[in-house]
Design goal:
Blueprint: H1 28-90, H2 94-111, H3 122-128, E1 148-151, E2 160-161, E3 196-198, E4 204-221, E5 234-242, E6 250-258, E7 267-271, E8 281-291, E9 298-300, E10 302-309, H4 321-335, H5 339-344, H6 349-354, H7 362-366, H8 375-412
Antiparallel strand pairs: 1-10, 2-4, 3-9, 4-7, 4-8, 4-10, 5-6, 5-8
Length: 413
């Protein structure tokens, strides 16, 4: 009787004759592609989706938490003020307690621009409204009794620059946010480093006005200068009223308006003659013809278009507790060098001016942007970059795995 023997050194003929042996990749490259094929093509899409969802949930929770903290701080501030008020009333000094409240109300009323529409209050309305110094007597017939004089080229009222029909400028870069509307941000003194600069020979600036107005005058204000007007400052310019969207049909309003050293102040006006009988306009175009120093670049700081409107415009509201908290936080971050917190906070020009933060932090308003880089922008940018990297990575892995499968099929033949 012959017993069966077990051969340990004999190879199973590479598994070709045995149905129970699974063929495995025998090279490192095949093992690597096999792992990527299984890992990324089947599981990575779900994992990326879960990661993105988790990031969005965490961001939402962080926003809710910050809002809750602000509410708690506001409530505690109100409680502390009430406790102090009650304590002083009990001590017999109620008038001193009301001084801060009365002072805050007076400050708000001073900052508000109240306009009257009644003929009986015409003299009071002339004191509250500060129109441009229109010195032409002919313009008096051009001003109705119930008209409201306003700067219709104010960004905070809704005016904007028509970039499609304006010259290219440094405030509208190829990479980055469009800050062109800084040239329309109506403020007492425009900063030097926020000018609209164009390298074209005769640049044009087209503006969509906030309201349809009957124009009275236009003005240009440069940043503060002492004895000599800086180079690149506009010297002579024209202003036309656009009669269509593309400003192909237009009507002249002011010709050869000069910004010179003979006039006082950084803002200089050019009146629109009443004999032009200009209609209601909603778009104007500034055409700069010369600048100081014959510079290649023309830099414009702030333009205004004054006119009459029969519709009342939005009046600035009193500052509430939320606005006060926002302004105090921004002031604290800026003055105490909390660069990271200040950078991530919402501090665009619209937010600062609408909440009345310029009196608390004038430096913030001087450095503000139309679209700032805050926390939401950073989160959106990170998620956008992460999403694109994930998509490119998945596509690359899929292509590599597909090519490897094709090579294996070609090799098996």
């Amino acid at each position: 009787m012959v017993l069966p023997t077990h051969r340990t050194n004999e190879k199973p003929n590479n598994g070709k004759n045995s149905p129970f042996i699974i063929e495995e990749p025998n090279s490192k490259s095949k093992i690597w592609y096999h792992w990527l094929n299984i890992r990324f093509r089947q599981y990575m899409i779900l994992e990326i989706f879960l990661i993105i969802t988790l990031i969005m949930v965490l961001y939402k929770l962080q926003t809710i938490s910050s809002q809750n903290n602000q509410v708690i701080e506001m409530v505690s501030s109100i409680n502390s003020r009430m406790i102090i008020l009650e304590g002083k009333i009990i001590s017999g000094k109620p008038n001193e307690n009301l001084k801060p409240l009365e002072q805050s109300i007076d400050d708000v009323l001073k900052n508000m621009k109240m306009y009257s529409l009644d003929d009986s209050k015409q003299s009071k309305s002339e004191e509250s409204i500060t129109p441009p110094p229109v010195n032409l007597p002919n313009n008096s017939s051009n001003i109705p009794k119930k008209g409201l004089i306003l700067n219709a080229a104010d960004y905070l009222r809704g005016a904007s620059v028509d970039n499609a029909h304006s010259s290219r400028s440094n405030l509208n870069p190829i990479i980055g946010y469009d800050q062109t509307n800084l040239v329309l941000l109506d403020r007492p003194q425009p900063p030097t480093h926020k000018a609209w600069c164009s390298n074209e020979h005769n640049p044009v600036l087209t503006i969509n006005l906030a309201k349809y107005i009957k124009p009275i005058s236009v003005s240009y204000q440069h940043s503060k200068w002492t004895h000599h007007i800086p180079m690149s400052t506009p010297r002579i310019y024209d202003v036309v009223a656009c009669l269509d969207f593309y400003c192909e049909n237009w009507k002249p309003l002011v010709s050869n308006c000069e910004y010179s050293t003979q006039s006082n102040g950084t803002e200089q006006f050019c009146n629109i003659s009443s004999y032009l009988n200009a209609p209601l306009i909603g778009k104007v175009q500034f055409r700069f013809k010369e600048n100081y120093g014959d510079s290649q670049s023309t830099c414009v700081n702030l333009v205004r278009v004054y006119g009459e409107s029969d519709k009342p415009f939005k009046v600035q509201k009193a500052k509430n507790l939320e606005s006060e908290q926002l302004c105090n936080d921004l002031k604290w971050y800026y003055n105490n060098s909390y660069y990271f917190k200040y950078t991530l906070a919402e501090k665009s020009c619209s937010v600062l001016y609408e909440n009345g933060c310029c009196s608390d932090c004038p430096e913030c308003c001087e450095e503000c942007l139309i679209t700032d880089y805050n926390w939401s922008v950073v989160v959106f940018t990170v998620m956008f970059i992460f999403l694109w990297i994930s998509i490119i990575f998945l596509l690359t892995v899929s292509v590599l795995a597909y090519l490897q499968e094709r090579r294996e099929k070609m090799g098996s033949r």
